[in-house]
Fold each of these.
Amino acid sequence: GAVVSQHPSRVICKSGTSVKIECRSLDFQATTMFWYRQFPKQSLMLMATSNEGSKATYEQGVEKDKFLINHASLTLSTLTVTSAHPEDSSFYICSAIASAGRNTEAFFGQGTRLTVV
Amino acid sequence: AQSVAQPEDQVNVAEGNPLTVKCTYSVSGNPYLFWYVQYPNRGLQFLLKYITGDNLVKGSYGFEAEFNKSQTSFHLKKPSALVSDSALYFCAVRDIGGYQKVTFGTGTKLQVIP
């Protein structure tokens, strides 16, 4: 299957700083990428949908000024957690859908464990 | 709005026995259904999907799922469980229009007992 690479896999940052997470589709072009947040022992909660070259669409309750999403190319989307606080600590996962074929499955990155201290 | 329900938080099965992980869905049109598996601190791995065609879908690692339109179910099955199958399993439904958003169930932890 297609490969989605997410970096870093783990990050620890101080409260008040910003953290950037990258999501890359390595062997396909992704017009649409999704960012999820997963709390321990819970399902994935969609944060936002990112389309190349346009503004991300955020789910209700997600602060767009706090979770900045950029999808500058067909292979790269970034999530920046600004002014991070301990409550932002979580597991963040991106996924991507290939631009060709609307019935293809979504491919997922390996996730980023963010810990804010 | 689309939704997915996984009624069991955890399923325990002895190694070598058949396993079933349940999933029901709700969509306004034809469903695109998926199963994913997640190992600790990892992203999701695709197992199988139903788009159209045969109701019995075969996927990775010997898993299969049966689409039942009348019962709006898409249960995941495997004839003989392995200890290495122990993981968290997510059922998902995808919106076929718009941004093709994927909605996940709450997940079912599968524990295969040696």
Amino acid sequence: GAGVSQSPRYKVAKRGQDVALRCDPISGHVSLFWYQQALGQGPEFLTYFQNEAQLDKSGLPSDRFFAERPEGSVSTLKIQRTQQEDSAVYLCASSLVPAIAIQYFGAGTRLSVL
Amino acid sequence: EDKVVQSPLSLVVHEGDTVTLNCSYEVTNFRSLLWYKQEKKAPTFLFMLTSSGIEKKSGRLSSILDKKELFSILNITATQTGDSAVYLCAVNAGGTSYGKLTFGQGTILTVHP
């Protein structure tokens, strides 16, 4: 596609509910990143995929967070048993190749946990 | 731990003013520094800087990197209300083979008519 597409744009969840956030990267981009952005803060790294391989998940805050990219294209970030502190904007970014390439961001999914 | 600090955190100016946004960093294995503009949507790429002293320019925006003093500035001349946004600075660094970004907190720029 022309840009990185994320869905849904907004998600309201009750505490304890599971959610799934989708990212469709720019076609042909090898690298895919997930970031979490709390209100008034810069984005923070969650996890990285190179094609279908998850090479780094060091930023995932707990084992309730799980991400996958099974065919090396679309990625899903899943949060189980959501808690209020999970409320944030979840941004996805893709880049053509690893290392130095520019990352292009989607508009994000704003998650509110009540 | 890699660290990126932006200043000021917020700035209010009038149309036509010139602004300078600052970004300092402490990281290991620096590769590049990137500037993004974030409105109520996707952060949009502005500049990527890898070499010291070479100014990058796009219209009224320009940016430069100082790798000795570990900082970058983003200049916006003749500001317009459409420049109102959060400006994010990010550094690509670390021992990995891919470009994990460490972001600053952002500078909120408000341009009044």
